[in-house]
Amino acid sequence: MGNDRLPKKIVFIASLATALVASPPGGGAMSAAIPGQQPSVIWIGLDGADPDLLEQWVREGFLPTFSRLMKEGSYGRTDVNIGTTFSPNVWTSIFTGQRPEKHGILFPPGLKDIPSSQRKTKAIWNILSEHDRRVASVGHLVTWPAEPVRGTILSRFYLKAGVPRSIYPDNLYQELLAHWRSQQGAIQKMQDLMDPYRPSSPSQTEFPDDPRGNYLREKQKDLNNLTVSERDAYALATGLYLLENRPFDFFTVYFVGCDYLGHRFARYMPPVDDYVPTEDATRYAHALRDYYIMMDRFIERLLSHAGENTTVVICSDHGTTKKEPLTPDDVRAGKPAGNHVDVGIVLFKGPAIKNGYPIPRSSILDLTPTVLYLLGLPVAGDMDGRVLTDMIRPAYFEDHPVRRVDSFGPPTHIPLDFPLEKVVNPKELDELRSLGYLK
Known about the structure:
Elements: H1 16-22, E1 41-46, H2 51-59, H3 64-72, E2 74-79, H4 87-96, H5 100-103, H6 124-130, E3 135-138, E4 151-154, E5 167-168, H7 173-182, H8 184-190, H9 211-224, H10 228-245, E6 250-255, H11 257-264, H12 278-283, H13 287-303, E7 311-315, E8 319-322, H14 328-333, E9 338-341, E10 343-349, E11 357-363, H15 367-374, E12 379-380, H16 394-399, E13 404-405, H17 426-434
Parallel strand pairs: 1-6, 1-7, 2-11, 3-4, 3-6, 12-13
Antiparallel strand pairs: 2-10, 4-5, 7-10, 8-9
Helix pairs in contact: 8-10, 10-13, 11-13
């Protein structure tokens, strides 16, 4: 995960039952919202969160936070209708309200990363900053180099040493580093639902080229990707710290683990392919479900900082699910068991939002226009999305008609001469290959 800024960590092992009974959501002590400092919007991005799986586990009682939010707010599915499910393209469309041909992030899978300077239009944090709103963004894609804003941008690479402009403002780094070092035990405990699935012996690196060896090689990749829980735990710890210590009007954080485990651990979900040994199918059957449970707890922790006037937004950029059996040749070639689907989730909860309302099928392009509207800002005519007015309470909508401007104009990017090859390390490239993003 590129966290070489950080000291070596201690692993805490706890069973699911113990975590459910003894720990508050997400592990560790609950923190309270600071009066007068609650954001107007808390927007949580769950990469790859799949609507079919999410809705199934809500029905089965595993995701109480989502269940409550669906009852108290409005929930639906989004169409990823931009011609691709490649995450940098999609998240940029989500946060600009524009299709890739407008915002400029057109690159196909295969690139190591995409600098924010490639984006041709303003993201929501640029727009809000220019309208005197205080913003914070933690860990999102296509945010490096971090742009100057009225607030804080922690780019995708905020945990990496030696990467310039990974954080804005720069002087925040030492403060965060001290916090991370003081929170090692809490950060590990946040991930304890994944501990039963972690390997107890060193990683194997050599495998015979036969069906059994090919499976064992892919299983090792599955287990290697469990380290994504650490990345998400740092995002939670960092987000909580910012919310506890700084006032923001708009706060957003990105979690990637539903995507990673959706690609790798779908192989252990029924119907299980014949090449997976029965003991592994049993042991790892609920790994992906437990990751969603962990995200449910993370969300509950973050929402301890929501006030009665806060609007909560949760979305994904696509679903990730098992679509078809893998052949022996697929396994030998390292094809992931889970694939992207062009439908995601969206949930809104807030004082202007209807309770228990099923949002009619919407587009990922509708989210930024809707959030701008809820923050009292106009919607730009060059945005391809619309305000989701169906879920707005009639009295609120009557008093707050949608206002429009032609455009918010292009962003101002500050050049940075730092090659991407120095940003993404070989371990991360192997990780991306194991997910099917690189060949």
